Amino acid sequence: MNTSRHPIQCLIPDYVLVEIAKQGDAEEREAALNTLAVSTTLRSARSQAEAARMAAGPAVVATQGLREPAVDRIIRDAKNTRDTGAPIVRKEGDPPVGDAAVDEAYDHFGHTWTFLFEVLARNSIDNAGMTLDGVVHYGKNVDNAFWDGDQMLFGDGSGTWFTRMTKSLTVAAHELGHGVIQCDGPLVYQGESGALNEHLADVFGVMVHQWLLGQTAEDADWLVGAEILAEGVQGRALRSMKDPGTAYDDPKLGKDRQPAHMKDLVITLEDNRGVHINSGIPNRAFYETAIALGGFSWERAGRIHYATLGHPQLRPNSDFRRFARLNHRVATQMYGANSTEADAVAHGWNAVGVEL
Q: What is the Cα–Cα distance from 190 to 274, expressed in whole angstroms?
């Protein structure tokens, strides 16, 4: 199987961790290198999970689809090991256990499942009732959160640059969003198609957050991971969909490298050819569309995006322009060729220099 198509989906890009390793002291360097090592190991695990799911075929999904839709969560405590099969410490219907990471992950999973079901009429990640399986306290001083193809893994953070990943709903919804993309896409995880993969996960992250708080597009901050930056880090979040490139600027963490326009597209071999970097361009386009439409981002802009992800004409290697043109076509099919919605989608992509 081509592992470049199904690498581990992580929140914090390797290039940020590399910068910390270069600029930090001995302790910071060790934490960054440890997280990088975890990422490498999990890439293999995710590829194997993808292969197993593909080999199982549609019969398994069809059987699962007969289950009545209901959220099903299990949270495991790895106790700072890398045991993804760690004992379950909280399962569906259990009361809070008093461990902040466990209870935060449980709650975030519930909010994300409810959003998928109530807003998008989707039955869990795979649309067939998949159990949401999370592992907290994963590894020691791990500055990241991961979707490995079957589970979500939350590091506690080193405390120097990042805190525990379970603090942020946008982080959890982003990573679970990768699971949705995996089931409905997929989008090859490199170059512009990989940046679209990251972009769509960010869209899921902010929409779930805004939906839970009842925020309009105008009132929302459009930040991803605002809660995970440690005290003293110069920044507001890991990413800003509203203003890509402005989320952080820290002496050791580096500067947010995301562009907001095609004229600034970053050509690079790192970060799977810029998947976390160039996702700033479609992120800004979605923000522009949502603002042009007004109201709640998930009601029209989000539904159009979700329908585009699941469209049969979406290709695994779609670039920004192909996705944008399909995005606009979906808007016209859903709302009409001369609709406000179709015009807003065109405006969003034009604002970032992507021609339809």
A: 7
